[in-house]
Amino acid sequence: KNHKKASLLSTTMHNYTAIAEQLQEADYCVIDNALGKDHAEELREEIKGIEKHQATIAHGLTMITDSKRRDDRVAFVKNSTEPALSRHREIMENLRLALEERLQLNMTACSFMAAEYSPNASGYVRHRDASPISPSGRKLTVIYYLNPD
Fold first, then answer.
1. Exposed, middle or buried by CB within 10 Å (0-12, 13-18, 19+), for 99?
2. I want to staple 116 with a disulfide (CB 3.0 to 4.6 A). Which of 36, 69, 89, 146 is the partner?
3. pTM higher than 0.85
4. What is the crossing angle of helices 83-103 and 16-26, to 10°?
5. What are phi and psi of 26, to 5 degrees?
6. With b meaning 16 or more CB within 10 Å and e meaning fewer, what string describes 40-79?
7. How far apart are CA 56 and CA 68, in angstroms?
8. Are 113 and 76 a contacting pair, CB within 8 Å?
9. Cα 123 versus chain centre, distance
10. What order do you get walking across the sheet with 62-63 strand by strand?
């Protein structure tokens, strides 16, 4: 596939067609401030408050130390009664459904990730999580970063 650098989209999450087109063109899409500062702050605080509560976070918040790949704290967000978490899951599920409709990815399973980099982190490096020995079947990854900047 063509992995040319994609331009940043200054759009809302509800511009699903533009997101789908960007994914088709460049294999990835970056949307700064997608859901606004307030949503990110509320979600960050709720996740920090329930880091170890397995009913909400599938694997807790864990620091991945392979800095060649990533050094962010990642939360896999499950169903929750917490307002920001519940709202976030609904928004991400709507995004998944809209992209499924537009891109025909035949996604049967989906997980929702939120992540945060520490101030001295190296940042995201494009990589593949799936191994040929144990493929995950993942066709789309959506990571919502909680960093304020």
1. buried
2. 146
3. no
4. 60
5. -125, 0
6. bebbbebbeebeeeeebbeeebeeeeeeeebbbbbbebbe
7. 28
8. yes
9. 14
10. 62-63, 72-77, 112-117, 143-145
